[in-house]
Design brief:
alpha+beta, elongated, five-stranded mixed sheet, three-stranded antiparallel sheet
Length: about 240
């Protein structure tokens, strides 16, 4: 009996040891999220994934916004409306010339007459052969017709003349701006761009509207206008002082 117990004890011990070796202990499993979740101990829901039916990332974004508890809706942009006065106008072939405009007069085949001419304070230009030609109040096409008529009258048999505006007369800006004064005019300017050229508003400036003085063939007028109003050559912009 004693000899039989030793083999049984050995077998039992071997079986116990093999069971301990085959059983694996608990394994620590870290979080499967992003580095932020590892660093800060927070977990985040995964972004929705679009199905195979189409839509891609855009469908996923729509699904994300649809599932938002606040029901996010993008705000609509408010329209901006300017009420321009009747005075200032766009400048094209109907533009009326005045003192300070600089013109390029081309007389085809006549290099001695083709040149740049400035309209003087009297509102006229002076050319060889024909002398002083009134320009104030004329359009470029009207001035070209006048020059053509004078050249045909005893100087050139069939003259061909073109008049282009090389530089517009300056505009003026006064009042509550950093640097009031006279500045070169650039096509398609507005009151806002004129203020910017003059260095911007002063601390006391009234910023929602200005007083614009405009002169054209029908006469001179003064208007209270918003910042988006177009201005023309020779116009005067006055920025008023606010009361509080």
């Amino acid at each position: 009996m004693h000899a039989l117990r030793l083999p049984i004890t050995a077998v039992t011990t071997a079986l116990a040891l093999s069971g301990c070796m085959s059983t694996s202990g608990p394994v620590a499993v870290g979080p499967q999220g992003s580095l932020d979740s590892v660093a800060y101990g927070q977990t985040y829901a995964q972004a929705p994934v679009a199905d195979a039916s189409g839509g891609g990332a855009i469908s996923a974004m729509r699904a994300a916004f649809a599932s938002s508890p606040r029901g996010y809706v993008a705000p609509a942009a408010a329209p901006v409306v300017y009420s321009a006065p009747s005075g200032p106008a766009r400048y094209d072939n109907a533009y009326h010339l005045d003192a300070g405009d600089r013109l390029r007069v081309v007389v085809y085949g006549q290099e001695g007459l083709t040149n740049t001419y400035a309209i003087d304070a009297a509102g006229a230009i002076t050319m060889p052969l024909i002398g002083t030609v009134p320009a104030r109040g004329r359009t470029p096409a009207g001035l070209a017709a006048e020059i053509t008529g004078r050249l045909r009258n005893g100087f050139i048999r069939e003259p061909s003349v073109a008049v282009e505006i090389e530089a517009y007369r300056p505009f003026f800006i006064l009042g509550e701006v950093a640097a009031p004064g006279q500045y070169p005019y650039v096509p398609n300017m507005t009151v806002e761009s004129a203020v910017a050229i003059a260095g911007g508003f002063s601390p006391r400036a009234k910023r929602d509207s200005v007083t614009l003085t405009h002169t054209d063939a029908s006469g001179s007028g003064r208007f209270v206008v918003p910042l988006g109003t177009p201005i023309g050559p020779g116009d005067t912009v006055f920025v008023n002082e606010r009361w509080f």
